[in-house]
Amino acid sequence: MRVLILGGTTEASSLARLLANDARFEATLSLAGRTAQPASQALPTRIGGFGGIDGLVHYLKDGKIDAVVDATHPYADQMSAHALAACELVGIPLASLARAPWTRQAGDGWQDVADTEAAVIALGAVPRRVFLAIGRQELPLFAGAPQHNYLARVIDAPAETQLPPRLTLLQARGPFDLAAETTLLRDHRIDVVVSKNAGGNATYAKIEAARALGVPVVMIARPHKPAGHVVASPKETVAWLDHARRSLRGV
Ligand code: NAP
Fold it and tell me: For a pocket test of ligand 1, which of 75, 99, 117, 225 has the largest count of ligand atoms closer than 8 A to its C-beta?
């Protein structure tokens, strides 16, 4: 069975490892290409956009793909919408590997905002020392609030010139641990964290560190992410794929 995994997450890489030595499946992993040197993967990997829904439809047809697994990041809503539309057009099944969001714990000082634009406004007029843990793509939006001092953690340095004037870049790739995150927030005298609700363990330590230090978190809500059949883990995805494979073969 030919499978396309839309990846870029820890779960996608775990699924790739499960499928790599499984003779039932011939799988390819697809990455958006957001990082210059992606972590090595257990499966053959293609990198870059497909060219919208039409491009993905062509890719699925040309590659005779039998099933797609959407294991993209919780904030990659466009790719998910394209995957759902393209799978419907081609008539193949889609599973969506969803990562549970973090939930507010006692002591968390979260301010929920709808999107990154709202996070910029939520920082307020008074200058603050802000830790931006949102990746690279939306950093230019914070140029709209130049009064703050920003520490932005990214994997690759952003190319954009429209960045906030008081911005320090910290290049690092997760996972991050609690001791290091606590030290980071302390050393930089951070008084507010801006985060996406990524879920999972790899980047949760900053939320725990903020809780321990009494630092508020501006939490950007997840976008609506269109989904096919929802699966909760890489292992459950393999079971779903096997079911789809049996249906395909009529057994
Ligand atoms: P997106 O807005 O859903 O996708 C934008 C376009 O990128 C898609 O239409 C598609 O291009 C291409 N794309 C996305 N994922 C792909 C994949 N796995 N394989 C091939 N092409 C892919 O997603 P995004 O721009 O990558 O990210 C949106 C937000 O998600 C970011 O702000 C970031 O916070 C978060 N995020 C993403 C990743 C990641 O690996 N993508 C990792 C961490 C965080 P075409 O239309 O040309 O097919």
Answer: 75
